[in-house]
Fold this sequence. Notes:
With 321 residues, the chain is of the alpha+beta class. The protein is built from 9 helices and 10 strands.
Amino acid sequence: MFSxxxxxxxxxxxxxxxxxxxxxxxxxxxxxxxxxxxREPPKTYGKIGALxxxxxxxxxxxxxxxxxxxxxxYEEMSATPDALTMLSRRDEDPFDPIFDHLLVLxxxxxxxxxxxxxxxxVGTYRVLRQEVADRHDGFYxxxxxxVQPLIQARGASTRFMELGRSCVLKPYRNRRTVExxxxxxxxxxxxxxxxxxxxxxxxxxxxxxxxAEALSFLYHNALAPEAWRVRAHDHxxxxxxRMALKEVNMRAAMKALPPLIKxxxxxxxxxxDGAVIDHQFGTTDVLVILxxxxxxxxxxxxxxxxxxxxxxxLSAPHVIN
Length: 321
């Protein structure tokens, strides 16, 4: 889709921390079983010019992603930090150690750290596979939406993956960067045989009435069919059906949708039942559910079909909470 877009061989990465507790580690901080002095190269999923998308492969990478999230969510947007978050200037939570973190790096903007030139992190997304969630405390989204009945109904043969904490530095919010970030997600999905992606996407602000038209549009036009429907927990559920279908101005409603939600709808995503107010982040959340089988086939010409992935060579090449 873009000139200069290249896709590179990948290598299996590791997480230096496992679950909510650190794994027993050797002096380099890696779990036992890793040879001393060995550090596996980061897994790169693609490049466009000076931009690269790859997985975080050490704790300092995750801290850099957390600093970017703080800058976007707390300084630019309306999230409310607690004392520890203000001191650290990082957006972090207990789930970060079990997520894989995708990073978009700009190699043309590099800072010197301990004598090394390190590219700037300009975008990030975190992803959590079902098998990892099952070994720990489940999915982050379960706090707002009851996703467990859907997972159980689809059975063990369906692999779910949660996406969240999507953000891009303001000067990089363009098609080029988002395209590269999505390429990283899609390559990861194909690599791990994921069948369903889901996660919360957000409207700015905590007054659902301010988004009545857009929420009603989603309810009438994108509500998940019964087989894929997930409902917000009753004590958090905010009605999305705030206007009759005939009262919704379709053009105005589409314009009011955040770009991330519009992008997922174009791919073929469904929306869960009910919005949720997230007071910490100052947002109104909706649940996005995207079965791989529902993705519009025209996108495969850019990113590759789900069954075309051949590891370790990558044959082809915005949810905040």
